[in-house]
Amino acid sequence: MPAEHECPPELQPLFRERWQRWCEAAGEEVAREVGSLVAESSGGRRALARAFVGSDFFVGVCCRVPGLLPRLLGEEDLGLDVDWMRTIDEEEELNRALRRLRNQVTAEVIWRDFAGQWGIPRACARLSELAERCTGVALDWHHRNLMARHGEPRDRQGNPQSLVVLGMGKLGAHELNLSSDIDLIFAYPEPGETDGERSLENQKFFQRLGQHLIKSLDAMTADGFVFRVDMRLRPYGDSGPLVSHFAALEDYYQTQGREWERFAMVKARPIAGDEVFAGELMELLRPFTYRRYIDFSAIDALRDMKALIQRQVRARGLADNIKLGRGGIREVEFIVQSFQLIRGGREPALRERNLLALLPLLEGEGHLEPGVAAELADAYLLLRRVEHAIQADRDQQSQTLPREDEARGRLAFALGYGCWDDLMDALVAARGVVQREFDQVIAPPEEIAEPSAAEEWESLWGSCTAEDSREVNLDSLREAGFAPAEEALQLLADLGGARIVAALPSTARQRLDQSMPLLLAAAAEEPEPLLALQRVLPLIRSVLRRSAYLVLINENPPILAQLLRLCAASPWIAEQLAQHPILLDELLDSRRLLAPASREDIADELRREILRVDPGDLEAQMEALRHFKQSQSLRIAAQEVSGALPLMKVSDSLTWLAEAILQQALQLAWNQVTEKHGVPAGASAEDMHFAIVAYGKLGGLELGHGSDLDIVFVHDADPQGVTDGGRSIDNLSFYTRLAQRLIHILQTRTLSGPLYEVDTRLRPSGNSGLLVTSLTSFEKYQRESAWTWEHQALVRARPVAGSGRLSSEFGELRAALLCQPRDEQKLREEVVAMRDKMRTHLDKSNDQEFDLKQGPGGIVDIEFLVQYSTLAWAHKEPSIVRYTDNIRILESLIEAGLMSAQQAGQMIDAYKAYRSEGHRLALQQLPGVVNGDQFEAERKTVQASWQQILG
């Protein structure tokens, strides 16, 4: 036989013996056919040699099915057909057909793998498909059979019920290996009973159905088995009911689900049963599996599981087990699952079940270092190939490397290696990669870090409420720079003795006790340790009942330093984190936290966030918008206090953030209103015939932290037109409802608070006017009825969202309105009168203090000077209305020769100084009032300009 010479000399006798056995079973004619096929193909000879030497099971199947081997040589894929089994009448015949199909598919996978025709992903996908189809056809067969006896199971409302089968583990992830068990969970939607004469409760009906299904798959017969079925992952394991209804499952996982069960659910996938019911079940299970927050508590559970496995490895001598041993398959799975459970609640893409599909996603999101995903994938593929080859030999569930020389030689040859040492070299390298990354991701911090300075603070935290330790603790605090030390100790004692701390579960208390020494050590490194401690403790209190956040801090020491630095710099940041601890995630990557983003970056990131949310779930979309705003605002504030972003760029970033949110919120509002009423004639999602115009700080690109949005809505749709939906309304009603829906999305107080407070009083006729104005009406009002102060406001007006065409037309109208010739004397009188009125009611200045915004020579004086100059002189030089922000308008006045560079420059410098101090005070949550001695020079120059221009 030519294939014999493909084998090493020591394996040739084994090949000859197995070949002879097959020839006797196949007969001369089939043997000649195979001989002629392999004689013409070196690849066929090699595949035949490896399969016969590497798998006694394969040889046995080929002996029982003589025609299989020539088909494997002659065809690229034998396929997987089970539909014909649905017509089988007898259960015994069904079970025989399932087993024979299983044997054929398993044999084909072995052949294709050893021949190098299929990679591991395709081989595992075929085995998973086999399990899914066999389960599906057997479930349907037994369901029909039981229905014939007992009727159809129905809920209490009479709706038909179906058993849903969840495939867990490798089956759920399409990663099933040779000789693998299949882990299943059975569930049905609701209690009830069947509608036949021999009626059964649904629980009993589906329990019997599950038992019949398991028997068809698991029972050993003369033809073998289909799959060994493991039901221990169900609630309560072997002691729990075989089948549960959805509500019982939900209650179990919400009240009693354990961490290891979350890991199991990561790969859960419905493989049989009604698709609608299956979808409902997965939605019920998702909140248990994936937390809304970044959940570092999953790492502790992984470590516990891994420690248990390692004890088993040592106790049972499993060092050569390529699944459970160090650097084995399980460690690759743990690496991936840790990121899934920590971040999957916030990053839906990570809910992907397949490991090889997840690795590049993890690297792309920055969770793995560049290049690591490919290294882990290569290592994993080798480990899985070796696992398959071990199991292929006798169709036994083993992952242990052989110890006998002859078995090692067969394994190495079947996998295409020249000798055992070559295979071992590859395995050692692969397991080294896995072990390195596993330790990086999952090893406890104490195993990979130097002893921490926090150890010095453990006794202080432990004794902070003890009176006999008071003096020692005060000395420690004074020495570390906490001044006054009495206040610092009182803060700690208040927390340590708090009722909420005493009531904490043991796990949460342990996490707090681990966090506090770390926090004190980090606070001692700050310039003002007491201030840092004061500001971060409200956050600690807020997360005591969600102690997974404490794990995040414990697992990431750099986060704690960053956290204290930011909280010490700004109570606004500290308050945001205390109110929304989910924002702690933003501190994980300091490079991202402190890297300023462009307008395009912000808009693109928000689009990606919204795409991750179910388009039919408005509440989730609103929460996504709020979380995005909070996280971006935190980043911008962090960049400001760290000096990474200067004042002007801070306002730019906050403005770009608001613009991006307005555009997305408008799109959400459009989708909702058009779904209900249809689209106005001539309009579309690309051109809504609707635009949002920003005034004030948003219009002037000067938004601050916590600023309201001054906005006006305009449209240019046909006033006589109507929408094209089933519940058609006129165009004006449509755009009014669109604006109302948008305001609802922005202002509604969800769990995360409102997005922005919105002020629409700058629209024509203010609160008494229409919420949405046509562009024609807007122009008429501005030309015939608007007050001077409304023209002043128009200086800072610009479109920020909606129709690009309409926005352009509004821009042209704004320019035309601002460039109208005006009576300068009358304009001057009206501007001064308005300013005097504002100062009388709003200025908080006195002999000792200066109001940055309303005080003489302050921010509003500069704004009024800019607005007057624009309205008075734009008809002579239209270029000065190009921009809406004060600084660029002043620069335009210089370029147009309408204001001296010295005068405009002094106002620019004063304006920047005032706003910079105003931003600083806002982050400190202080009013915009400073000592009267500050900014004397700036105030004088502004007042001089006021006197010169406005008298």
From TrEMBL:
Keywords per UniProt: ATP-binding, Ligase, Magnesium, Multifunctional enzyme, Nucleotide-binding, Nucleotidyltransferase, Transferase
Any single Gene Ontology cellular-component annotation: cytosol
Keyword Manganese: no
UniProt enzyme class: transferase
Cofactor: Mg(2+)
Superkingdom as given in the UniProt entry: Bacteria
Residue ranges of domain PII-uridylyltransferase/Glutamine-synthetase adenylyltransferase in the record: 303-441, 834-924
GO biological process annotation, one example: regulation of glutamine family amino acid metabolic process
Region of interest: Adenylyl transferase: 453-951
Residue ranges of domain Glutamate-ammonia ligase adenylyltransferase repeated in the record: 84-276, 561-810
Catalytically driven reaction(s): [glutamine synthetase]-L-tyrosine + ATP = [glutamine synthetase]-O(4)-(5'-adenylyl)-L-tyrosine + diphosphate; [glutamine synthetase]-O(4)-(5'-adenylyl)-L-tyrosine + phosphate = [glutamine synthetase]-L-tyrosine + ADP
A matching Pfam family: GlnE
E.C. no: 2.7.7.89, 2.7.7.42
GO molecular function, one term: [glutamine synthetase]-adenylyl-L-tyrosine phosphorylase activity
Region span, Adenylyl removase: 1-446
Keyword Transferase among UniProt keywords: yes
Protein family: Belongs to the GlnE family.
HAMAP family per the UniProt record, alphabetical: GlnE
NCBIfam families referenced in this protein's UniProt entry, alphabetically: PRK11072.1 (NF008292)
PANTHER family (alphabetical): BIFUNCTIONAL GLUTAMINE SYNTHETASE ADENYLYLTRANSFERASE_ADENYLYL-REMOVING ENZYME, GLUTAMINE SYNTHETASE ADENYLYLTRANSFERASE
Function per UniProt: Involved in the regulation of glutamine synthetase GlnA, a key enzyme in the process to assimilate ammonia. When cellular nitrogen levels are high, the C-terminal adenylyl transferase (AT) inactivates GlnA by covalent transfer of an adenylyl group from ATP to specific tyrosine residue of GlnA, thus reducing its activity. Conversely, when nitrogen levels are low, the N-terminal adenylyl removase (AR) activates GlnA by removing the adenylyl group by phosphorolysis, increasing its activity.
Name under which the protein is recorded: Bifunctional glutamine synthetase adenylyltransferase/adenylyl-removing enzyme
Species of the source: Microbulbifer yueqingensis
Lineage of origin: Bacteria, Pseudomonadati, Pseudomonadota, Gammaproteobacteria, Cellvibrionales
Gene name linked to the record: glnE
